[in-house]
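Researcher: Please translate sequence to structure tokens.
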Amino acid sequence: MNSALSGIRVIDFSRVLAGPFCTMNLADMGAEVIKIERPKYGDDSRNFGPFKNKESSYYGYVNRGKKSITLDLKNPKAKEIIKDLVKQADVVVENFKPGVMEKLGFGYEVLREVNPGLVYCSISGFGQYSPYSSRPAYDIVAQAMGGMMSITGFPENPPTRVGSSLGDISAGLYAAFGIVTALLHKQKTGEGQYVDVAMMDSVFTFLESNIVRHTVGGVLPERVGSRHPISAPFDSFKAKDGLVIIAIASDHHFSKLCDIMKQPELMQDEKFCTDPNRVLNEKELKTIIEMWLGQFTVDEAIKVMMEQGIPCSPILNIEQVCKDPHIEAREMLVEVEHPAAGAIKIPGNPVKLSVTPPMVKEPAPILGEHNEAILKQFLAYDDGQIAQFKEDNVI
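Model: Translation complete:
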């Protein structure tokens, strides 16, 4: 089956999460991703658990479908090999601190001389130009500086990090989007370009309406727990045996809920007749709803509301969502066979394309698994030269 990015070759210098998540998505879409790793050690995430047969499942998830070649980036011969690989590539991805690739001799200005049509993507905490460019950054730093932590959690508790690495994942997604956009431009014009993605910027855009609530509405958004700041009832509510999510953002759905609760008069009450008014009286409304929910289990409440088209759900834990029929039907949990770890289950790709669907084709590579294949196939080195590279610690 032809893939959307078939024929696109990516040289991937990135490590840990933001960059590898970007190139994982490119690989799923058919790009050939050659991952450059440190001899003997590899990507830092090879040491992140959980492990199966001493192989990192963390690494196995975000590096599936790639090829691994080990190269000492400071070795002159390795530098030559990298430039020869870049000549045959379409894309370079890196997520070092700004300035590191330039010090190594692989900055954009150098590599575009080698390959004028190159799309070169840098992912960093604060971008290539910023008062903070030189600062180190991990996900929690991006979430804190980007504003996300200030609106996450309950008002009586300190700000909290979103439960997954939103800073890395959002930057990885924007990087993949930027790369594909640049490749489309290159297809039209033959011109390569530089793609600069910052984690802080990416988190900032994920704040969505909170920004305009401040810049236009003059509000300082704060932590409101699970509820929505501009719609109600839009929160978690206590049922007999657990919590139910009810998400209503229209008078139509609220009217239906009132009928289900056998309290149609609520829709005529000035405190609840419009969404803005319901937000102002959210606490009183939540008490009313929870008094009604107290007669139902979570499953019973959801059944009653779903029959009338009310947006609602249980709160699934990780074990439950992994077993959910939706995840199975959408192939969002896939099994790959790793040569050392054996069978492991990892998330699938959420983008469903009718003609060129993404595919999880291969497991993540063993460190240096493709050294010989790449050196022979792409660069025409022979066995003797490769043996010498090993002896000289080039690979």
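Researcher: Any highlights?
Model: Residues 166-189 form the longest helix (24 residues).
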